[in-house]
Amino acid sequence: MGFTDDAKETAEAVGDKLKDVWEDTTDRIGDKVDEMKADADVKKAEAERDSVKTRNDIKEDLRDDH
Asked: Where is this region: Disordered (predicted)?
């Protein structure tokens, strides 16, 4: 019975380790996805800022011509 108990404990330990690795991996993937979304939001905001600045510069140039 000792060998069977040892095998069972080893299998449970391996199962627990695999579960921990899976949870860590899914957490890392989620963190990376959040990081990528944040980067995309920043790039979008910067592009919008640049667009508004260009539009305002054009308006200002038109005002100066009159």
From this structure: 39-66
According to the model, what pLDDT value does residue 66 have? Answer: 67
pLDDT tens per residue across span 14-43: 999 999 999 999 999 999 999 999 999 999
Mark out the alpha helices in 1-66 (DSSP H runs). 2-65
How many CB atoms are closer than 10 A to CB 10? 10
Q: How many domains does the chain have?
A: 1
Q: Is residue 26 in some structural domain?
A: yes
Q: What is the CA radius of gyration of the chain?
A: 29
* Whole-prediction pTM: 0.64
DSSP state of 12: H
